[in-house]
């Protein structure tokens, strides 16, 4: 298996934009939020479990995410029960990705990387991060999410400062140029260390 790079960041910190930059560098990226989207789509493996937990959040088309979000806001005690349904299915999808990909570096894009201990499966972790003011402005600009909804999700995430303290690298996401430069630097640093490692092996 190649070098497994974990990518994380609190909600609205620019994690998906950073993931796209790693893709632009030619790396395979596994996206936990996208895996949840597939599991929630019509016929997806999480639909029946969610229907049992929150019947009003499921329609013919699969899981209705805004309805599920409202149910979680009304009753946050649903979070651990929902996660017990969804996270094992997400882990299976991640394992398939890792077994399938053979690039020298692969990226796991996971919002709850530290919270779920997935950092222990990574060779190193990078965190996408911006100021709290930038983060809140981005969240409030998202359709359908108000301050209470954003704060509820944030309250269930490790604080940004703790993520920053743990990660090997930080990608600053105030600007696209700054983030892209950091992404390129990280890829080249990892490739450099892999090259040095291979040379030592010979
Ligand atoms: C809460 C839900 C309905 C919100 O859906 P929505 O389409 O609005 O947002 P989306 O799924 O794109 O997630 C956006 C961000 O919310 C945050 N978030 C999502 N789930 C969680 C959670 N369980 N705990 C903390 N933060 C979360 C993450 O930062 C994520 O990047 C949805 O995210 C969900 O069902 N989450 C439970 C599954 C889960 O834990 N997913 C996280 C990845 S494994
Ligand atoms: N490096 C950057 N420079 C400028 N704007 C950025 C940068 N990264 C992200 N943004 C902007 O911030 C917003 C959120 O970005 P993105 O969707 O990547 O965040 P996210 O952390 O993946 O969000 P979520 O956790 O909600 O899925 C978007 O409007 C995006 O255009």
What would you note in describing this structure?
This protein has 202 residues and is of the alpha/beta class. It has a domain at 3-27 and 103-194: P-loop containing nucleotide triphosphate hydrolases (Rossmann fold, 3-Layer(aba) Sandwich). 54% of the residues lie in helices and 14% in strands. The chain is built from 9 helices and 7 strands, in the order E-H-E-H-H-E-E-H-H-E-E-H-H-H-E-H. The chain has helices at residues 15-24, 32-40, 47-53, 65-74, 78-100, 132-140, 147-155, 160-166, 176-201, and strands at residues 3-8, 28-31, 58-59, 62-63, 105-109, 124-129, 169-172. The strands form 2 sheets. It has a 5-stranded parallel β-sheet, sandwiched between helices. Strand 3 and strand 4 form a beta hairpin. The longest helix is centred in the last third of the chain and has 26 residues, at 176-201. The model has no long low-confidence stretch (mean pLDDT 95). Adenosine-5'-triphosphate is lined by residues 9, 11-17, 33, 111, 138, 173, 175-176, 179. It is an enzyme of class 2 (transferase). ATP binds at residues 12-17. Its main location: cytoplasm. Pathway: Cofactor biosynthesis; coenzyme A biosynthesis; CoA from (R)-pantothenate: step 5/5. GO terms for molecular function: ATP binding; dephospho-CoA kinase activity.
Q: Which key phrases capture this entry?
A:
single chain, 202 residues, alpha/beta, Rossmann fold, two-stranded antiparallel ribbon, 9 helices, 14% strand, binds dephospho coenzyme A, binds adenosine-5'-triphosphate, cytoplasm, EC 2.7.1.24, Dephospho-CoA kinase, kinase, ATP binding
């Amino acid at each position: 298996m190649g070098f497994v790079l974990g990518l994380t960041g609190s909600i609205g910190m620019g994690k998906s934009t950073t993931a796209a930059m790693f893709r632009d560098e030619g790396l395979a990226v596994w996206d936990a939020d996208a895996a949840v989207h597939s599991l929630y789509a019509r016929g997806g493996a999480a639909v029946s479990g969610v229907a049992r937990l929150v019947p009003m959040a499921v329609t013919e088309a699969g899981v209705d995410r805004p309805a599920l979000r409202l149910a979680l806001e009304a009753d946050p005690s649903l979070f651990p029960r929902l996660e017990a349904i969804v996270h094992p299915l997400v882990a299976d999808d991640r394992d398939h990705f890792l077994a399938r990909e053979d690039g020298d570096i692969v990226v796991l894009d996971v919002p709850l990387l530290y919270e779920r201990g997935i950092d222990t499966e990574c060779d190193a972790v990078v965190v996408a991060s911006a100021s709290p003011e930038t983060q809140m402005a981005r969240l409030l600009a998202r359709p359908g999410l108000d301050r209470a909804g954003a704060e509820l999700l944030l309250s269930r995430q490790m604080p940004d400062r703790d993520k920053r303290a743990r990660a090997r690298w930080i990608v600053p996401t105030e600007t696209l140029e700054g983030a892209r430069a950091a992404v390129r630097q990280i890829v080249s640093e990892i490739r450099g260390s892999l090259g040095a490692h291979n040379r030592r092996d010979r």
